[in-house]
Specification:
membrane, two-stranded antiparallel sheet, 2 domains, eight-stranded mixed sheet, 10 strands, alpha/beta, 10% strand, globular, 13 helices, Rossmann fold, transmembrane, Histidine_acid_phosphatase
Length: 475
């Protein structure tokens, strides 16, 4: 996903006001470059490690040492009470979080003197040990082609499954058939011809994208023109956007609802602890899959600010919610909610061309910041903040949800149990749910992308039948 520089002008004053004081922040981050989903298990690559490490350094310069430093946060030696780091049970996301933290808080050499007078020097030049808390949301997502498989929310799966019976999906499946058939020679060592269709739009794009990054040769590379690569990306974007969000059936965006609840909960504790003069709850960092980005983007109407939010964020992309104030904080944390404001910012990957964090208006507005009360009201319309809410929305009645089911009335709808049937849809070759768009919409998006500057796709060299470096396309 690319955001032209011209479209970022609305946020040029985002951090220019010297009177602003950042009081806390919540970062949601995508993993770095990885091996393809179709060759699971996926793994973080060396490039991916470098990307998240670089991102950690960037956020260190913003929130720990720079002019937008979070008030009261430790700069060099981490104070664990100030930091909250979470990631799903997923090796790519967990390792990405660890790499990010190495950039955020680099080693600080320490020497401890024991009671007997001997001295102990910290190993690895004082590498800082920062725990990463595991969460179930999105567990195993990087090994799952169909991201709803990473969720146990019954009604969200039902919502996604329903797309396969829609006219829009059928139309797009049929009208793109020839395009995907033309790419069979590129991917047939990994994906069977019968599965090389729009149904697997993201899996096909992902496999080729990894090969374009890592392979010195790709089978039938002459078929991978700039136009075909752009079409692949555009179709994959539409496919995955509609997997994660549907304006008329918002349960599909359950991951964004959960993320909204986590953001609200954490920033509330930032305010509460700040007013108690406690040096805690300054910065939260969560790693997750792009489906959560998409779900959240849709729920807070970010595509109204920029339609590029309907494209899959690049590797190591991140968004940040900054809690700040413009009142004097020399005497302490602001006591009035009306003195607190929230700014949403997004950074598309770590490439220098992506620039710094850029602010965008939330909830369809035109201001790059909203009051704390506006923010809580906006997110409160859909945020899921506890297990009972989640179980009720998802229609789950077993496992941990059983405790919320009334003996005489389940109180939930949908009837699908946690971990239950997937509606008969096979996940073979990462079979994914499609986009809720017509071909005209996709082609229109393609034209808009090309008009506005489009995706920058660099075509690699010609291919032989060599195996794939870093787990790419096999000849």
């Amino acid at each position: 996903m690319q955001f032209p520089v011209a479209l970022s002008l609305l946020s040029t004053l985002a951090s220019a006001n010297a009177a602003e004081t950042v009081l806390g922040a919540y970062i949601f981050h995508r993993h770095g470059d990885r091996t393809p989903k179709s060759l699971a298990p996926t793994n973080l690559t060396t490039l991916g490690y470098e990307q998240v490490y670089t991102s950690g350094q960037y956020y260190r310069s913003r929130y720990l040492t720079g002019s937008t430093k979070i008030k009261g946060i430790n700069e060099d030696q981490v104070r664990l009470s100030q930091l909250s780091v979470t990631a799903p049970v997923d090796n790519v996301l967990q390792n990405s979080a660890q790499g990010f933290l190495q950039g955020l808080y680099p080693p600080v050499q320490t020497v401890q003197t024991l009671a007997n007078g001997s001295k102990v020097t910290a190993p690895m030049d004082g590498y800082q040990l920062i725990p990463i808390n595991t969460i179930q949301t999105g567990a195993g997502s990087e090994d799952s082609g169909w991201l709803q498989d990473a969720s146990t929310c019954g009604n969200a799966k039902i919502s996604s499954n329903a797309y396969f019976t829609s006219n829009e999906y059928t139309n797009l499946l049929n009208t793109t058939s020839n395009f995907y058939t033309s790419l069979i020679p590129v991917v047939n060592a990994t994906i069977s011809p019968k599965d090389t269709t729009y149904k697997n739009a993201y899996i096909i794009y992902d496999l080729i994208n990894v090969a374009e990054i890592h392979n010195t040769s790709i089978p039938s590379s002459n078929l991978l023109t700039n136009t075909s690569l752009l079409t692949l990306r555009t179709l994959a974007d539409a496919h995955e956007w509609n997997l994660a969000y549907n304006a008329t059936d918002t349960i599909r965006a359950i991951s964004g609802m959960q993320l909204a609840g986590e953001i609200l909960t954490y920033l509330n504790t930032t305010i509460e602890s700040g007013r108690k003069s406690a040096s805690a709850n300054k910065l939260a960092i969560q790693f997750g899959a792009y489906a959560s980005f998409f779900s959240f983007f849709g729920l807070v109407h970010l595509p109204k600010a920029n339609p590029r939010f309907m494209g899959v964020p690049d590797y190591a992309s991140s968004m940040a919610l900054e809690l700040f104030t413009t009142v004097d904080t020399s005497s302490g944390f602001p006591e009035r909610n009306e003195d607190l404001r929230i700014r949403f910012l997004f950074r598309n990957g770590t490439d220098m061309d992506s620039g710094a964090l850029v602010a965008y208006p939330l909830f369809g507005g035109d201001s790059d910041a909203v009051s704390w009360d506006e923010f809580t009201d906006g997110l409160g319309k859909f945020a899921v903040t506890d297990s009972e809410q989640w179980c009720t929305k998802c229609g789950n009645t077993t496992g941990t949800c059983a405790q919320f089911v009334d003996a005489g009335n389940s109180g939930v709808t949908g009837g699908q149990q946690s971990g239950g049937d997937k509606g008969g849809i096979s996940p073979a070759v990462g079979g994914v749910i499609g986009a809720f768009v017509t071909l005209a919409v996709v082609l229109g998006t393609l034209a808009a992308v090309m008009l506005l500057g489009g995706f920058r796709i660099v075509k690699k060299g010609s291919l032989g039948r060599q195996g794939v470096a870093e787990g790419g396309v096999k000849a």
